[in-house]
Amino acid sequence: xxxxxxxxxxxxxxFLVLWSGQAASLFGSQLVQFALIWWLTTTTGSATTxxxxxxxxLLPQVVLGPFVGVLVDRWNRRMTMLLADGLVALATVVLVLxxxxxxxxxxxxxxxxxxRALGGAFxxxxxxxxxTLMVPHNYLTRIQGLNQTLNGSLNIxxxxxGALLLDVLPMQGVLMIDVITAVxxxxxxxxxxxxxxDVPARxxxxxxxxxxxxxxxxxxxxxxxxxxxxxxLLMGMAMIINLVLNPAFTLMPLLVTNHFQGxxxxxxxxxxxFGVGVLIGGLLLSVWGGFQRRIVTSLVGLxxxxxxILLVGITPxxxxxxxxxxTFVVGTSNSLTNGPVLALFQVLVVPEMxxxxxxxxNSLAAAMSPLGLILAGPLADQLGVQAWFxxxxxxxxxxxxIAFFIPMIMNMEDxxxxxxxxxxxxxxxxxxPTL
Length: 435
What we know:
about 425 residues, Growth Hormone, Chain: A
């Protein structure tokens, strides 16, 4: 589907119909996610259980991430999204029946969380890659802004609403909301045409070999990544940060119940505060634009985030609202950290490699989270949940400070930064502040 910007007259209406259905489904999914995590918290009271639950949601992304981008580019994207949405809805229906019959066990929830994450691992790249083919070029930036607004708004609304629904509905009633909203996502996929990208012609006389072509694409992406040592340093930083931060946020329900003696509504306040912070940080970044060097904005945001997370960990039990305020700062800093660094990635990576490189970077960054969860669960059970917030905040601050003293990172956006591709790696292995 080759169109120039000047001749791009595609209607935005089909995409907005599709997007609205997906937004409704995402809202239901976030309600279910909150409800299931709260059920695990109140049923087991175990940090290890919460860590395992998060591990179930991470494994598909970590294991399949490097391969999904290549597969989605080759498969029919409409069918990929249909099957992914259907799989998630079916898994939720099974869990509804288990709760209704009173036979639900913790391992049932683990399996459902894994299946939902498996569907999401294929759905997200299929939806993102379809957007370019459905949206007129002059609307692409606005659509991305719409996506950010949706994500921030859902973070604000879904947690407190989920807490209120748990007070008036049985668990199976809350889960059925996700099944209903999934229908709103599936129906547009049945009636709306989603174009496929142009496939490069195979050399004449060469037989099709899916796996040969698949591994050739993967190998090209890996070879390209090796030519960008500054990007690899940023990736290393992301791995270290995810190792310590993801477990901290996974343990937030236990911090609310055990330390602050709170309820589901208190957890909702914490998560909404984070969502408001993400929105405010995004607006601030769009109006202000950040410092002249994008990397400085990201590192200042990273250090501020570490300080706020450390504050959450040392907040006394009687000062719950101080933790809410600190979480707001975490959300604001998250936007200021991730926004500029994502722009840096787009500058450093050529367009034809961005799909493979971004998927690979996300997978490698997320790969450290399972190790962190394995360590955090037992450690938090022994030392208390607050200890992991202190560890996570301290390490995050150190990563931000150390990065200021690594020339390859600080100089990566200079006009001459391309020459850094041939420079040797420094001894300090740190990398990207994307969380």
